[in-house]
Design brief:
There is one protein chain. By secondary structure, the protein is an alpha/beta fold. The chain has one domain: Metal-dependent hydrolases (TIM Barrel, Alpha-Beta Barrel), CATH 3.20.20.140. The protein has 5 helices and 12 strands. The strands form 3 sheets. A 5-stranded mixed beta sheet has the order 3-2-1-11-12. A 5-stranded mixed beta sheet has the order 4-5-6-9-10. The radius of gyration is 16 Å and the shape is globular. The relative contact order is 0.18. The mean pLDDT is about 95.
Length: about 220
């Protein structure tokens, strides 16, 4: 079973050009069995998900809701961006990762580092859009090891952190438009039918990352 676990739509993520109306059909066209909507700090309600699935005309696609949050220490230092699966309410932003971990794990959910080794270059040098090497310090459940913005070095860094920390490694498109949906995906050897099952598979590391975009 193949799922894209990191997708933003223009309904709740201002940075996205992806309309929910065409998303589900596109997901099936590219061979996905399921998707997770991960808006910035906002979790789709179960009612909204059901309405979207009904309107799409793609009844056999599993559609779940997570969210992506940016975390900062109490001093305001950036800790990274993280995908939250299994937390039932929207969390907004500007919380510390330590607080997020306690809240999400308390609900039986999982926390995954979003694109920790996605690079950026600036006039002051370079760095990572995500947690980077701080993934070694956090009590995470997984990290994105396949991402469309990774180069070979980023992929190698993510895979090394996955092995050394014994974390789940997932693949995600981080889609903000239809063309990106499914470029990277997570393969589950067992059928996933719910968010609880997805979280269990990630905790047990019964996942494999796959990327269709050449690195």
């Amino acid at each position: 079973m193949e799922m894209d676990l990191h997708i933003h739509t223009n309904r709740y993520s201002g940075c996205s050009n992806l309309k929910p109306s065409g998303l589900l059909k596109k997901a099936r066209e590219v061979g996905l069995d399921g998707i997770v909507l991960t808006e910035h700090g906002i979790r789709w309600s179960d009612e909204s998900l059901a309405e979207l699935a009904e309107r799409s005309g793609v009844p056999d696609l599993l559609v779940l809701a997570g969210q992506e949050v940016a975390c900062y220490t109490k001093r305001g230092d950036f800790q990274g961006e993280f995908l939250l699966f299994g937390y039932p309410r929207s969390l907004g932003s500007s919380r510390s990762l330590e607080e997020i971990l306690e809240m999400v794990h308390g609900e039986g959910g999982v926390v995954v580092a979003a694109h920790p080794f996605k690079k950026f270059v600036s006039a002051n040098g370079g760095g990572f859009y995500g947690a980077g090497h701080r993934v070694y310090d956090y009590d995470l459940d997984g990290l994105e090891v396949a991402h469309p913005s990774y180069d070979r070095e980023s992929t190698a860094l993510a895979e090394e952190a996955m092995r050394k920390r014994n974390l789940a490694g997932i693949g995600c498109s981080d889609a903000h438009d239809l063309r990106s949906v499914g470029l990277c995906r997570t393969v589950f050897p067992d059928p996933i039918t719910s968010m609880a099952g997805l979280c269990e598979a990630i905790r047990a590391r019964r996942v494999t990352a796959r990327c269709l975009k050449p690195v």
